[in-house]
Amino acid sequence: MGKNKSIIFTDNSKIAIEALAKAGADVFIGYPITPANLLYQYASARFPIFMAAPDEITTLQWMSGFSAIGKIPVTATSFPGFALMIESINMAYMMELPMIIILVQRLGPATGTATTGAQGDLALLNGMISGGMSLPVFNFYNSFDCWNLSAKTVEFSVKHRTPVVILTSKEEMMTKVSLDVEQLSSISKIERTYYENDEPYIPYKAEKDLVPAFLPLASENYQVRITSSTHNQRGIIQNSTVEALNNSKRLHFKNIRNMADYSFYELDEEPGAKVLLISYGITALAAKEAVFNLRAEGKNVSLLIAQTILPIPQIYFDVCAKYEHIIVAEENLTGQYRQILFGHGSGANVSGVNDFGAMINPNSIIKEVMKYV
Amino acid sequence: MFKKFLEEGELPFCKGCGHSLIANNIDMALQKNNYSLHDVVIVTDIGCHGIIDKCFKTHTIHGLHGRSVSLASGISAGLNNPDKKIIVLIGDGGATIGMQHIIDAAHHNFDMTVIIHNNMLYGMTGGQPSEFTPSGFNTTIAHNGTKRKAYDICQIAALAGAAFVSRVIATTDFSAMLSSAFSKKGFSLVEVMEICPSYGVKSNPGMKLKNVVEDAGLEVKILVDQNVETFKTEYRSDTPSLIDSKNSIPTNYCSSLTKPVKIVISGSAGEGVQTAAELFAKAAIASGLNVTKKGSYPVTVGVGFSSSDIIISPTEIFYTGTAEMDAIIVTSEEGLDYSYSTIKNSKEGIIFSDISLTLPETEAKIINHDFRSKTSSKNVSLYALLYYLNYSKVFPMEAMIETFKSEKYSSKIDLAQLLEF
Description:
Helix content of chain A: 25-40%
Mean pLDDT of chain A: 96
Structural class of chain B: alpha/beta
Low-confidence stretches of chain A: none
Order of helices and strands of chain A: EHEHEHEHEEHEHEHEEHEEHEEHEHEH
Oligomer: heterodimer
Number of strands of chain A: 16
Shape of chain B: elongated
Order of helices and strands of chain B: HEEHEHHEEEHEHEHHEEHEEEHEEHHH
Radius of gyration of chain B: 34 Å
Strand content of chain B: 15-25%
């Protein structure tokens, strides 16, 4: 044993911070909060620039300042801190500033239970940008995806000039796991491109992919205007001109359009299966175990693990259309992703496995699947 | 003086508004200090003053109400360049919302100049009072004047450690004061007193600005002019990787396990629960097993229970929950309290309990052993896990011993004594 293996005992917080740093994120700003503390601690040792902010509003504002001058900032928080960041994330969204916010979910409402995991904040993310515009949200369920997708978030955020949320939870970020580092793929540092032209820089003039070229604030050669209020292509505040409104609408369509190349999911289809199980994040592990055990008993069930959570990749609906019954398993009271995917009146062919204050047990999933196989 | 930093044409403010005076004086002061257009970043937020960005030929950034000082702090720390001039324009409403940011920026001495447009009310939303409205000053919703004393933001910034603080009354030319503020390295703040022509004048007919300021006890002068250590951003280009294969655990042993085993050890804080569980986990890895480990303890980590869940498995571990345990090890009353219901509901696991403890009724098999009197309390958890390993043989004891020897703390513990069961 041991040949070509290099096993370490680590946690996904360490994996995420290392992957983000390798991918080119260079600033971590944060305020400690359980269960995001490990991310804060590791970032303090790893990121080229680390700053301790006095609160979460300041965190996002400092990040926006750093992002505006061309850095790639990251923070990590949980709901109480995230709630304070929301207006500023909207600001960064409108300004088109790249940044990564890691939301480590814990049990709410309010301060809830800091040391208990949950998947209770997805509904918030779905409507968090005023106007219901799309905010990119990624998640992962194991260390390898944590590694790969953390790097991908940097790429998506920078390339498309948008804040991106990594949605995770206490159990995913604090559980220590044995991991073969030889199986981690290499991560390249992102190479940023800046506006270069003889013409004056027009800060919000979109290119083919609906993304404007980036130029850092305080650039030597061109004037740069950045604003969070409704604005035209030149960054001049305008109440409701067609140009300004189109610019705001572009922010939504930019993410929808460009998510096609960043639709990450794991689809494990069983021939003859009529039931599709959908899960994500921490519950995806229970779903995998449930599917493994069900198949061992000869029960046919397919599994879709969503990693690109929002905006919803079209392929999720295409896959769902092939099945008679769909079960969405997630660790929240109301079935937040189920409702986002299928609406509040989901109908008889959609059901959920949900729990509140405890991880979903594979047996609970098996019990639900058994009703339909 | 001709305009260099402002566009030609009328400024967008009401006739007689002090905001126009401030914009013109910024232009004059920047010219005095020989800045070029692209040296300057104007940071604004919400309020009448915030519509000025379009008039500046410099870089501009316009953000959230009250947060401009914080946004500018990020820009300042990010640029880390004393040749760039960051100027924050904020109203008394924004300064009320974002006072923490002003204090914090002064405290850090981020390199910037904050110009507070204090017209003593919220001009953009209809002339309501702010926390900067002096007592006796009428506003549209307080016709008999505000009762509270106004904030003295200059005193607050001074106490927070600003490099330069001054208060002026808006006049045609106060550019020398702005020039001094712009020249100062570190955090500088100039509070400019004005009266809003639309609401302040109408609500307080005949009132003189100079008298309002004087009656409010707000001194018009330079309050602070000192050399300070400006915030410098530390950039580390050579931080070591967090994922280092040098820390890998060699798998020199072999386990005969054929299925996953879930173990929980529950004891008291200070009795080495997490350290012993970590050692056990590493030894399992050294035996070729997949491992997960979680720690549970109250937020006050130094008291109460401490518990750790470990899964060891010859196959990949998916679900890391530990509802049905194979082994529950309890070494103290606090640990028992924490694991009480797990023990009670356990059907197929084995409970390894210190002999001093009274367990609930359970269908699980119980093994009582004297963990606590064998060793000092800080090694109780290690002893209990060694005992469990010796009993269960889930992986070789040699793996545990070798892993133990590689730990820094090993020289302080007599392992041979703990291996006597």
